[in-house]
Amino acid sequence: MTSTSTSPSASTSTRTAHIRIQGRVQGVGYRVWSHRTAVELGLAGWVRNRRDGSVEALFQGAPEAVDKMVARCADGPWGASVSRIEDLPDDGDPIEGFEVRETT
Fold this sequence. Notes:
The protein has 104 residues and is α+β, with helices and mostly antiparallel strands. The chain has helices spanning 30-40, 63-73; strands spanning 15-24, 44-49, 55-61, 81-87, 98-100. The longest helix is centred in the middle third of the chain and has 11 residues, at 30-40.
């Protein structure tokens, strides 16, 4: 149940995926794991916990790398148990770097 979107203003070599990961994903190092994995794949974006117990993330970069990251999110770090990945709307604005954001 994962997909990605390409912004009309972005070049065809860049893909953006904005997702919400549900399940046992807080308290297991999911944000730290996401940051490390995204940086290893050369992606820009961000990750944050949500007050509803989910994790929200935005990944932007080479389409193959974004696809790998979204696929890896289905497993997450050791201790996580992902039950669902939901696609979210994205404005497609270019992003630089990768950050862990505050809980919303």
